[in-house]
Specification:
By secondary structure, the chain is mostly helical. It is 40% helix and 0% strand.
Length: 77
């Protein structure tokens, strides 16, 4: 779907103008065992979404105190 969105944006052929919105809707694309995933066309936002997902899994694997704000961690040295 992301590839199709990029194709549509490129097909618009805008040189100085810009697209301010693009909505795509997909139905019946997810198997019953899979979870729906939000996609973004903004690479920086996409990286933050991936980091957020990873940081949500860390406490389950390493315990509730494994991740938090850097200012709250004590210096070891």
């Amino acid at each position: 779907m992301r590839t199709m969105a990029y194709w549509l944006i490129d097909a618009a052929g805008l040189q100085r103008g810009r697209l301010t919105g693009l909505a795509l809707k997909g139905e019946d694309l997810v198997d019953a065992d899979q979870v729906a995933q939000q996609i973004s066309l903004d690479e920086a936002r996409e990286a933050r979404l991936i980091a957020e997902t990873a940081s949500d899994r860390i406490p389950a694997k390493f315990g509730p105190g494994a991740i938090g704000p850097a200012a709250t961690f004590l210096r070891v040295s």
